[in-house]
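Hi support team,

I'm filing this because I wasn't sure whether my run with 5-hydroxymethyl-3,4-dihydroxypiperidine finished correctly. The job status page said complete, but I'd like someone to confirm that the output block is well-formed before I use it downstream. Pasting the exact inputs I used:
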Amino acid sequence: MATTAGALPSFPPGFQWGVSTSAHQIEGAADRRAPSIWDRFSAEPGRIKDGSTADTACDHVARHREDVALIGDLGVDAYRFSLSWPRVLSPGGLDFYDRLVDELCAQGIRPVPTLFHWDLPVSVAEAGGWLERSTATRFAEYVTTVAARLGDRVEQWITLNEPAEHTLLGHALGEHAPGAKLLFDALPVAHHQLLAHGLAARALRAAGARSIGIANSHGPTWPASDDPADTAAADLYDTILNRLFADPLLLGAYPEGFAELMPGDDVAADLKLISESTLDWYGVNYYQPTQVGAPTASDGEFSGLTLPAELPFSVREITGHPVTDFGWPVVPDALTSLLTGFRERYGDRLPPVIITENGCAYEGTDDQDRIAYLDGHLRALHRAMAAGVDVRGYFVWSLLDNWEWAEGYTKRFGLVHVDFATQARTPKASYRWLRDALRAQRA
Ligand code: IFM
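And here is everything the job wrote out:
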């Protein structure tokens, strides 16, 4: 992979630099919280590639001071972490987040909590989970509790992380928790998460929050060919990934043909609630483009996922680009085109954008490939900004090597290496590169 091309271009003053993590992937201390659907899922044989669980993960609950010090030394402005809803339900659970927020504030790092990053409490799942409308209401109650406790120090909130992945991987394909294989019958999960976003935003505003966002995953969809069967399949995939969640939030409407499939007596009223003043900024998690074609006769495979032949599209391998250890193609230009495409599609309805995740899986602590990845994507981001997209921040995924869901501990996304046997943290070359790049931005 190519090395970097010297100093990064200058980002505007006030641009927010950050690193991201999520609760289930780093916290450990599983015995001190209620179970989540991921605990249950990872206990089922064959679900997780290396047979591991996140019971210990990065032992972050015990080591959060050391981790906050690493964030401080890196020199970023903000730390995006998530709260574990099951921990908040458990005695003393919120005390941990209270201490974490205090520690961040003491180091001058802005806390940016995500309120849901896939670890639904089992108790909520047993009442129907996201297939039930009542989960959105329960989520808003939990958010009210969190905001009452942390709202005096937290200004910037993220309601949900990647509801598209949680719907598709968790409820349509069964590759993530809770392991349901409902295909298009999973659509209520999308609607109820959007409703939860709307209700949570209302609860946060009532608690005085002034900066609310959501972290949605997006990436350009490339049709496998000009054949109408391929372009139609790619259009559908693109609608599901790039519009099913963004259109309701930004336009107050579902893409054509989807509103009729959503649950509830008054979807139009829900859409009003979902879209009205619920976003001060729009979070984009970007990793890669996807090449999509017409369905194939047999099941497909993509990044370790099985894609059943019944799907109305198939995902094809992208060639001609370097790939990460996950097999994901490295295409920085696709970040530029994604953002300029969003600006074209949504115009003034698109609020300022923050890149809430971007990063890559590579082994090793002399991670020159990660440096080249980050360098390339930051330049691509700068090009999108020069073309008029209002981008206000960039968060690297991830601070630490962590538990990568169905991949277990086999994929390392961290700027900091974690030895999972000893819990020793070792900053990688990419950590030092980012630290120096941030110093140069501020010089
Ligand atoms: O680790 C995940 C994260 O939890 C959500 N976004 C993508 C990351 C890499 O797969």
